[in-house]
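Inverse folding, one chain.
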């Protein structure tokens, strides 16, 4: 097996994993700290991707498009939190799932009304459209390197925010004992609202950065939500550190599986059968990883509730 190809797929897997982390971090904070099952989180990812693609095409500025996408999605999240989510904080998970699933349907129809049912183009920034020679024989897309760097940077900032800041201290206090935190003067509702909007901003950033790599289309939020949920289950609900480790694992397993499982099957099976089974086995690899982790650590790798 070609070592250069393996290294290239490792980079691709790490990049995909870091984008999964941006989505899963917001989801695990909302679920683990606020105890709210928010299925509409993927729709916020979709809104970020659509807004960024549109602004980029019309303005020519990718950085400006990402900023506008994050700001617009945060505004949508504020409206969603004020009009719906606050009414769900005290409800059971079934009510939360049903209500946020309804938001998914509304969001998909709203996107169809604004942008139409066809995918929209999310161009790669002109300055980042070419490859970079990492070493001899491995030209790598410069845009994917920027995505990798952005993911690492945001992950580091999020770690500092949650673990080494006053805001993070208030969040942890509200999550550990909401009643006691309120007695000590912490405005827990305001903290929770901030967490929800922060999660939306991370999802929008991931959508804006992933737009030039994946198809920007209706339903993209639902398809990315499933691996994001797998990430928070593997990492442990409510754990940002767990989400980071699990996202990298899922990203690497998914990418390596899609790249190499079909090739391995073609070496031992008839080509037609290998072509049918390869994508299926690659897709199952992510769930096999989750099953293997939960067999040894049922609460996840770094459960915040342990």
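Residues assigned per position:
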């Amino acid at each position: 097996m070609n070592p250069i190809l393996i290294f290239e797929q490792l980079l691709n897997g790490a990049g995909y994993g870091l984008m999964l982390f941006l989505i899963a971090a917001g989801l695990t904070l909302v679920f683990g700290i606020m105890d709210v099952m928010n299925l509409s989180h993927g729709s916020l990812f979709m809104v970020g991707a659509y807004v960024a693609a549109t602004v980029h095409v019309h303005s020519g500025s990718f950085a400006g498009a990402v900023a506008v996408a994050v700001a617009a999605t945060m505004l949508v999240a504020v409206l969603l939190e004020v009009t719906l989510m606050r009414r769900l904080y005290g409800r059971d998970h079934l009510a939360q799932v049903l209500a946020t699933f309804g938001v998914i349907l509304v969001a998909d129809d709203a996107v169809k009304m604004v942008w139409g049912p066809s995918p929209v183009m999310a161009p790669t920034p002109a300055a980042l459209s070419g490859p970079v020679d990492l070493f001899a024989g491995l030209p790598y897309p410069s845009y994917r390197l920027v995505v990798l760097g952005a993911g690492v940077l945001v992950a580091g900032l999020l770690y500092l925010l949650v673990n080494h800041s006053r805001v993070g201290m208030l969040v942890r206090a509200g999550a550990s004992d909401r009643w006691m935190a309120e007695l000590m003067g912490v405005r827990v509702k305001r903290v929770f609202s901030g967490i929800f909007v922060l999660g939306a901003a991370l999802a929008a950033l991931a959508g804006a950065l992933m737009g030039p790599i994946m198809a920007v289309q209706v339903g993209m939020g639902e398809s990315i939500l499933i691996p994001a949920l797998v990430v928070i289950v593997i990492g442990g609900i409510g754990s940002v550190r767990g989400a980071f480790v699990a996202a990298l694992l899922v990203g690497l397993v998914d990418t390596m599986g899609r790249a190499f499982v079909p090739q391995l099957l073609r070496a031992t099976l008839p080509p037609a059968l290998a072509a049918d089974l390869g994508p299926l086995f690659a897709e199952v690899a992510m769930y096999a990883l989750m099953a293997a982790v939960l067999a040894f650590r049922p609460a996840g790798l770094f459960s915040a509730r342990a």
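The first strand starts at residue 131 and ends at 135. The two ends are 41 Å apart (CA to CA).
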